[in-house]
């Protein structure tokens, strides 16, 4: 149904009033603000009744003002900007009234004999019957029309209702729907806030567990470094002992070689002596008997075959490496008495058990290399 607005001559002078009225429309009831008007912290305005409806929908357990108990404050979100409004124990009655807006409403009502919407409706004329006003609503076609259209026109077989009744009903339904949407949006926002908090908690727990894992592996590194240092010291001790023994034998044989060389030199000089008496006098006790004794010095004091071998210090870390590869997170369910998570003490005990299980094979492995030197040949000197 098409209809024309017979208001063209009046639009120019009514435009300023329409603009003013748009600024005085409550975003909840879509009507002009009803006093008292409250101003929110975000500087938007609401009818106090509408603000209370939204607040009650967002806080269904909030006590009414007539209750003898002192209620706690609540919160709701501004329908215009979604800013969260936190109230004290007085609820919406603790919000400040916007007296400036209330005064503007009074002035507007004084300047306008009737509401702007009423003026517009008064001049809505039927396009088919130019002298008839739009005053009824076709429920079947869902369109405004005039009485003549119902009697003679296109809507004569349709069910109709008075236009103001349909208008008020739909405005009321729309207002209720807006309140429900606002309350639903608040609940959704609360869920989003809760999920954001869950995300922050997950990130914090992940960061803390990464730190704990780093500390546990740092302790393993320390154990490996300490054990490596001990084993290297064992190798160095036996190496030093063997080298010292061999060097002692080298000095012993060196001294013997020096004495033997001097004896050979003396013997050669004696052989060059032409006088028999002098020869016998020089050789004397250093004759062939002394050379014979020197040549019979035992050469059996030397390192045994394989004395230089250090293979008994070899270690097998394959099983340790395999054990390290099987390190996993604890997946055992916690008991009811253990609370929401493991305590620091239980984590430390579990870590110590894991570290002991890794350290025990190394300690057993350490017995072999440390006992072998006791039976090695260098213990004989």
In words, what does this structure look like?
- This protein has 381 residues and is mainly alpha-helical.
- It has helices at residues 8-23, 48-58, 99-111, 116-122, 147-151, 163-271, 276-283, 288-295, 318-325, 344-375; strands at 3-5, 37-39, 45-47, 75-77, 84-86, 124-126, 136-138, 143-145, 160-162.
- Strands 8-7-9 form a 3-stranded antiparallel beta sheet. The protein has a two-stranded antiparallel ribbon with strand order 1-6. The protein has a two-stranded antiparallel sheet with strand order 2-3.
- Strand 2 (37-39) and strand 3 (45-47) form a beta hairpin.
Strand order of the largest sheet: 8-7-9
- N-to-C terminal Cα separation, in Å? 124 Å
Helical element count?
A: 10
**What series of H and E elements makes up the topology?**
EHEEHEEHHEEEHEHHHHH
Strand content: 5-15%
Secondary structure blueprint with pairings:
Blueprint (H helix, E strand, L loop, with lengths): L2 E3 L2 H16 L13 E3 L5 E3 H11 L16 E3 L6 E3 L12 H13 L4 H7 L1 E3 L9 E3 L4 E3 L1 H5 L8 E3 H109 L4 H8 L4 H8 L22 H8 L18 H32 L6
Antiparallel strand pairs: 1-6, 2-3, 4-5, 7-8, 7-9
């Amino acid at each position: 149904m098409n209809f024309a607005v017979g208001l063209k001559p009046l639009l120019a002078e009514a435009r300023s009033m329409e603009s003013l009225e748009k600024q005085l429309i409550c975003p909840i009831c879509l009507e002009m603000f009803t006093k008292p008007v409250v101003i929110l912290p975000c500087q938007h305005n609401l009818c106090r009744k509408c603000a209370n409806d939204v607040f009650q929908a967002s806080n269904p357990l909030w006590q009414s003002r007539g209750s003898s108990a002192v209620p706690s404050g609540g919160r709701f979100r501004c329908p215009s900007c979604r800013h969260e409004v936190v109230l004290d124990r007085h609820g919406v009655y603790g919000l400040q009234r916007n007296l400036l807006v209330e005064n503007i409403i009074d002035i507007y009502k004084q300047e306008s004999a009737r509401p702007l919407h009423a003026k517009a409706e008064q001049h809505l004329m039927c396009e088919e019957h130019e002298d008839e006003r739009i005053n009824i609503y076709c429920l079947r076609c869902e369109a405004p029309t005039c009485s003549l259209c119902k009697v003679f026109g296109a809507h004569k077989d349709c069910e109709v209702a008075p236009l103001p009744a349909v208008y008020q009903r739909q405005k009321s339904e729309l207002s209720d729907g807006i309140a429900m949407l606002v309350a639903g949006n608040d609940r959704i926002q609360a869920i989003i806030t809760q999920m954001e908090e869950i995300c922050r908690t997950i990130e914090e727990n992940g960061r803390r567990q990464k730190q704990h894992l780093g500390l546990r592996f740092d302790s393993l590194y320390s154990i490996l470094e300490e054990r490596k240092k001990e084993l290297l010291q064992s190798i160095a001790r036996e190496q030093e002992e063997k080298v010292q023994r061999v060097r002692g034998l080298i000095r012993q044989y060196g001294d013997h070689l020096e004495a033997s060389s001097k004896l050979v030199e003396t013997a050669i000089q004696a052989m060059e002596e032409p006088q028999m008496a002098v020869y016998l006098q020089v050789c004397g006790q250093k004759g062939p008997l002394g050379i014979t004794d020197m040549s019979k010095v035992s050469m059996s004091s030397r390192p045994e075959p394989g004395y230089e071998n250090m293979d008994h210090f070899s270690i097998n870390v394959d099983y340790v490496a395999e054990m390290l590869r099987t390190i996993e997170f604890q997946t055992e369910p916690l008991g009811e008495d253990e609370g929401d998570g493991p305590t620091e003490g239980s984590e430390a005990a579990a870590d110590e058990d894991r570290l002991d299980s890794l350290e025990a094979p190394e300690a057993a492995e350490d017995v072999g290399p440390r006992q072998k030197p006791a039976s090695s040949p260098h213990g004989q000197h």
